[in-house]
Amino acid sequence: MRQIIIAKRYARAIFALGKEHGAVDAYAQTLRAIADLFINPELGVADALTNPLYPLEVRQKVMAKIAKAAGADSVLTAFLDLLVEKKRVEVLPEVADQMREMLEREENISHGWVTSAVKLDKALLGKVRAALEKITGNKVLLETKIDPSIIGGIVAKVGDMVLDGSIRTQLNGLKESIKGR
Questions:
Q1: 20 to 30 A Cα–Cα from 64, which one of 3, 27, 78, 154?
Q2: Are 88 and 6 in contact (CB under 8 A)?
Q3: Long-range contacts: 151-154, Cβ < 8 Å, 24+?
Q4: If 0-12 CB within 10 Å is exposed, 13-18 middle and 19+ buried, where does residue 54 land?
Q5: pLDDT by residue (tens digit) across 21-66?
Q6: Hey, which residues does 165 pair with through a beta bridge?
Q7: Strands 139-146 and 109-116
Q8: Which of 143, 144, 135 is nearest to 116 (CA)?
Q9: How far is 121 from 114, CA to CA, in rounded Å?
Q10: How large is the average pLDDT for residues 100-107?
C-alpha cells in the first residue's frame, strides 16, 4: 500500500511536468517502456538500479543510458535520476501505471470488461461499447471474457458500475422470488 502512495506522488509530479512541457503522452509511453524493462527479470535492470552494492554513480549512469535509449528528454531523465538517487526506483512500474491512469482520466477513457457465455461478434460488441459510452460519458476500451457459467446474456463492468444481464443472475432472482413467497 505504501508503494502505491509513493508512486502516486511521483506520478502526479511527472504528470504535472509533462503537462507543463506538453509531453504527457511521451512521458507516459517512455515510463511504460522503461518500467517494462525494469520488471523483466531476464534483463537484470532491476538489480542494476536497486542493488546497494553498486555505487550510486554507477546506478545513475545505468539509468541515464536507459533513459537515453528510450528517448527520454532532459526533464524525464532528471526525474528518473531522482528515483535512483532517492532509492525509489522500485516504484517505477507503479509510477508508470499511475501515469497511464491519470492520462486516461484526463482524456475521459475508461476500461471495461464484458463477460458472455459465447464469443460476441464485432457488431454486437460495438453496440455494447456504444451503450456503455453513452451511460458513462467516456470512451470505453473493452476487454472480453467468455464464461459459460453465466448461461447467456452478458455482464458488463466499467469502473464501479456493473450491468448484469446474465441468465444466471435472472434465474437466481427468480429462485429468490419463489423462496420469498
A1: 3
A2: yes
A3: 151/117, 152/117, 153/116, 153/117, 154/114, 154/115, 154/116, 154/120, 154/128
A4: middle
A5: 999 999 999 999 999 999 998 988 999 999 999 999 999 999 999 9
A6: none
A7: parallel
A8: 144
A9: 12
A10: 94
Q: Give the Cα separation of 6 and 94 in Å (integer).
A: 9
The residue type at 174? L
The separation between CA 66 and the C-alpha centre of its own chain, rounded to angstroms, equals 22
Architecture of the CATH domain 2-105: Orthogonal Bundle (1.10)
Pick the closest to residue 67 from 83, 86, 91, 44 (CA basis). Answer: 83
Distance of alpha carbon 172 from alpha carbon 90, whole angstroms: 46
